[in-house]
Specification:
The complex is a heterodimer. By secondary structure, chain A is mainly α. Chain A contains 12 helices and no strands. Chain B has 17 helices and 23 strands. The termini of chain B are far apart. In chain B, about 35% of the residues lie in helices and about 25% in strands. Classes of the chains: A mainly alpha, B alpha/beta.
């Protein structure tokens, strides 16, 4: 029993940064922009988030630092890919390389420092229920926030007019422009939202997951978040399922080694990507027409004036 | 203030919309040069002109999509600044775009909602959508996603979306280009009704007969300037064409006594599953095309014409070699290059990206289709002089106008690039030429050159297969016309029997067989 509870708690903690980053990227991609720089924005968010928390002693301010840092990084992307209409794939990759270098620089002075990690909720009585108590009522604020974020994004995309306009920009930017919508402004906002989420997801790692900063601590989570968006076929509901599934694979990978199961850990690390490819194949076979991905995804748009 | 209008009928009243000296400048290029136009209520006003005459620029300025460099727009007699489409819509200007401004992966209701500015709830929009589509006889299912709909249905969405704003003035950009004659007739009924309700309509079209039938006034643009405003009913199609082109349009003439010879392209019971999710399945297609003959294939876009072209050109292979016979040899399993070696040549519909590589030079594009059978490659090395010579010959023979000797394909205008592509294939002296939409989006002068070239090629003994949505074009050059519908190809009709009515019925999926008529009477 204790072990099951421990594993569920570990899975939730491992999944949360994936879920937050992927939710942001989902909004970005729904507007028609492919920002491959998630890993870079995350790791800068991690470095700045730790710096903020260490300097002020507040986890909340640390998280804000992460959000601002991720947003700043995404603005660099928006300036290049939207303002100057540079190829989005190249810009995104460059952003990741920039982010990894920048986070090393920012975080250099903080390596070896420790902070008090984010507190977990404690509701007397409820949290003490065996098995589900700590899972439901004993998490840190990031986990509850991540779920609220997904629900909010779902509601925004499918129940509000701005959400409809955002999806329209991702489906056909020429039409959206012809109807008078400011495509580039909408996309910039979507990119900024993606950056804020990536920054927060990165900050989660040193603020709640492990209470210290080490260079390269995102360890490819940004890439998994990107795969997750595809895996979810750009739908928030499936994103939650996918995030917990991918998180579970990461945890199983650790435990499998401990239990002496003879599956190479490299294979387990590759599982999320393999699953994404399989889902893509299944989706394209199941759907008879239309496109699952936003039709304008990754294409450059320059309005004529 | 004096009323400058030439139309005596309206003197003393204010026009609904008036532009004075409207000018749009792109760098040194004047897309619109001081255009004055008056639009009156209860008027269907045609806007005519060749490609590049400035029609689209003018309507974009009126719809607020672009800002004029100079000049004024008056709405109900008052000067207005149209800063964007929503500004134009709020004043009562609606627009139906030529290339539909629809979102394929959104539903009909969502598409309509995106074209409205109000704070109406989604439920109210759906309800009003059903009501408007019923009132005007434009049936639509609000819950369907656009990619599932036919071209005609898509246009209905555009029109209903515009009508839901209750516009006083509606702009339609080439609305009938993609419709069957019957669908076009339906549209005209709707437009007449809108006019009777007191609305004004600005109608852009290339089809002069249609304009004469429908429109009360016509304004003709040429090279960015207004040439004339006239009553199209008092003009002939030829006189309108003269004003558009600024001279006589060359008449296309078939040589007398053209002989048909041996069958050069035969298709036997060709059935082919679609290559992609949206594709059309080709069903039992058979026809025989002799040398010296031009067979036209009509039909609304998306009924299998692209798939047939791919099967004939070898872009998709048929499992049974005997389904396609070129020059007496079973060729269904042969690659594009092997088919070219048999004497076939192909001109696809899309000029940039399919017919040519846009960022490559013309000489390199000549090599791309001529490498196998035109002596441009020796021992694996490109003979640059030979490729350049092909460009020069094509340029001379087909009057391709370009800035330098060997520019990038993308730098040519549509008409000139199309002349180059068709010319490139014709100069290879093909025995069989398969050409798709030869004059789509090409101005009248270039279209005449291309049609004449196709006729001359047939006269010289080649078999020519032309796919086109332009029935007038097919009537002008084809000997027989067959119609594609849902992947089926009708039996060809001789040109003398191919009336617009018959072709229109076939394009809409009806059959001409007598037993059908009996059923109809019985029901």
């Amino acid at each position: 029993m204790e072990l099951v509870e421990a594993i569920i708690l570990a899975v939730l903690a491992a999944s949360t940064p994936l879920l937050i980053a992927a939710t942001g990227e989902l909004v970005t991609e729904r507007s028609g922009v492919l920002n491959l720089g998630v890993e870079g924005m995350m790791i800068v968010g991690a470095a700045c988030g730790f710096a903020g928390a260490w300097l002020t002693g507040s986890i909340f301010i640390g998280a804000l630092f992460g959000i601002v840092a991720g947003t700043m990084m995404s603005l660099v992307f928006a300036l290049m890919a939207l303002g100057l209409a540079v190829n989005q794939v190249a810009t995104g990759l460059a952003l990741t390389i920039l982010g990894v270098g920048l986070s090393g620089l920012i975080g250099a002075g903080f390596v070896g420092e420790r902070i008090t990690p984010a507190v977990h909720l404690y509701v007397p009585g409820l949290t003490d229920i065996p098995l589900i108590g700590r899972v439901l009522f004993g998490e840190d604020a990031f986990i509850y926030f991540s779920l609220a974020l997904v629900v909010g994004v779902w509601w925004f995309l499918y129940r509000t007019r701005p959400g409809l306009i955002l999806r329209a920009c991702g489906d056909n930017h020429v039409s959206a422009h012809a109807l008078g919508y400011p495509v580039l402004r909408i996309r910039t906002l979507a990119v900024m939202f993606g950056g804020a989420c990536a920054g927060l997801a990165g900050a989660y790692l040193p603020l709640a997951y492990t209470p210290f900063f080490i260079p390269g601590m995102t360890a490819g989570r940004g890439w998994i978040a990107l795969a997750l968006v595809v895996f979810s076929s750009w739908r928030p509901g499936r994103l939650v399922v996918g995030a917990y599934l991918f998180g579970a694979v990461t945890i199983l990978q650790l435990h499998a080694q401990g239990w002496g199961v003879g599956i190479p850990s490299q294979f387990m690390s590759a599982l999320p990507y393999l699953a994404t490819v399989i889902v893509l194949v299944l989706l394209s076979r199941a759907r008879t027409g239309g496109s699952t991905a936003p039709a304008a995804l990754g294409t450059v748009f320059v309005p004529d004036r | 203030m004096l009323d400058p209008t030439t139309n005596g009928l309206h003197s003393g009243e204010t026009p609904l919309l008036r532009t004075i000296g409207l000018t749009k400048r792109y760098g040194d290029f004047l897309a619109n040069d001081a255009i004055d136009i008056d639009i009156w209520p209860k008027e269907i006003h045609a806007l005519l002109g060749e490609n590049g005459a400035g029609k689209s620029t003018l309507v974009k300025a009126i719809y607020g999509l672009i800002q004029p460099s100079a000049g004024d727009i008056f709405w109900n007699g008052k000067p207005v600044a149209l800063t964007g489409p929503s500004e134009a819509r709020s004043r009562g200007i609606g627009m139906v775009f030529q290339h539909f401004s629809l979102f394929d992966n959104l539903t009909v209701a969502e598409n309509v909602a995106l074209g409205l500015d109000g704070r109406e709830s989604f439920k109210d929009i759906s309800a009003r959508l059903e009501q408007v589509s019923k009132t005007y006889g434009l049936p639509l299912d609000p819950k369907r996603e656009v990619w599932q709909l036919s071209v005609g249905e898509r246009q209905r969405i555009e029109i209903v979306r515009a009508l839901m704003q209750d516009p006083q003035f509606l702009i339609l950009d080439e609305p009938t280009a993609v419709l069957t004659p019957q669908e076009a007739d339906q549209l005209f009924i709707v437009l007449e009704r809108l006019k009777a309700e007191g609305r004004a309509i600005l109608y852009i079209s290339h089809k002069l007969e249609e304009v004469k039938r429908l429109c009360d006034t016509a304004t003709i643009l040429r090279g960015g300037k207004k040439v004339e405003t006239c009553n199209p009913r008092l003009e002939t199609a030829a006189s309108l064409a003269r004003m558009m082109v600024g001279g006589e349009v060359k008449q296309v003439k078939a040589a007398a006594g053209r002989q048909t010879t041996v069958p050069r392209l035969v298709v036997n019971d060709l059935t082919l599953a679609p290559g992609e999710a949206h594709g059309v399945r080709l069903e039992h297609i058979s026809f025989e095309l002799k040398g010296g003959e031009i067979l036209g294939i009509a039909g609304v876009a998306g009924n299998g014409q692209d798939e047939l072209f791919a099967a004939l050109s070898g872009e998709r292979l048929s499992r049974d070699p005997g389904t396609i016979v070129i020059e007496g040899l079973a060729a269904g399993h042969l690659s594009i290059t092997q088919r070219r070696k048999l004497g076939a040549a192909f001109v696809p519909e899309e000029r940039l990206g399919h017919g040519t590589a846009p960022r490559m030079k013309l000489s390199e594009n000549a090599l791309l289709t001529g490498h196998a059978a035109s002596g441009m490659v020796h021992h694996g090395f490109i003979d640059t002089a030979a490729t350049l010579k092909t460009v020069d010959r094509t340029t001379e023979t087909f009057d391709v106008r370009k800035a330098k000797r060997d520019p990038e394909a993308a730098s040519l205008s549509g008409g000139n690039l199309q002349k180059f592509i068709v010319g490139r294939e014709i100069l290879r002296n093909p025995a069989v030429l398969v050409v798709s939409q030869p004059t789509w989006g090409v101005d009248a002068g270039a279209a005449a050159v291309i049609r004449q070239a196709l006729l001359d090629l047939a006269t010289a003994g080649a078999a020519v297969l032309v796919t086109s949505q332009d029935l007038d074009e097919l009537a002008e050059i084809a000997d027989r016309i067959a119609v594609m519908f849902h992947g089926h190809l009708s039996a060809p009709l001789a040109i003398s029997e191919a009336t617009r009515e018959k072709l229109g019925l076939l394009m809409g999926g009806s059959t001409l067989e007598p037993e059908e008529a009996v059923h109809a009477v019985g029901a």
